[in-house]
């Protein structure tokens, strides 16, 4: 059997890139909307003191869980779009894998329901998922920043700033008193959303330029 030749050219689909990037933004909005909605709907909830994890447990857990699933898909959408328009370098490749892994981790966080309810039965992996997510969110923007500069140095500066701010602020969460850790966690969530939206903006510009 003769070996099949490779296709003569690689085809980039601008519509696919645009749709994936647009969904990434939508997924961020759905996560933010679910948290805000749960803040109003869940009884006796203090958004300053109570964390998002507290919203994800109990009778109304489906509200935040739905937002987490939407955000999980947004992270995967960034990974798929970024792989489709690979801008070169090992850092970009690592970032693609990191975004895909973060999507899986966020999905598991929502699906496992090990937070906010003192769950200690079986294998409880929530804290390890949080650690992994924290590391990946610090590394992914930084390693992709160099290649992202091909679309404008503003992307390089933004992604590196996000990585530095996340690295400096995320570990602080574990040492905060319970009276303010809720609002602090929301700030970290907003920073993660900014990272996704920055990548989505880059990919949207790329897709529109091709069209």
TrEMBL record:
Alphabetized InterPro entries for the sequence: DUF998 (IPR009339)
Signal peptide annotation: none
Annotated Pfam families: DUF998
TM helices/strands, residue ranges: 12-42, 62-82, 94-111, 123-145, 157-176, 188-206
Keywords for this protein: Membrane, Transmembrane, Transmembrane helix
Keyword Disulfide bond: no
Keyword Metal-binding annotated: no
Official protein name in the record: DUF998 domain-containing protein
Organism: Leisingera caerulea (Phaeobacter caeruleus)
Organism placement in taxonomy: Bacteria, Pseudomonadati, Pseudomonadota, Alphaproteobacteria, Rhodobacterales
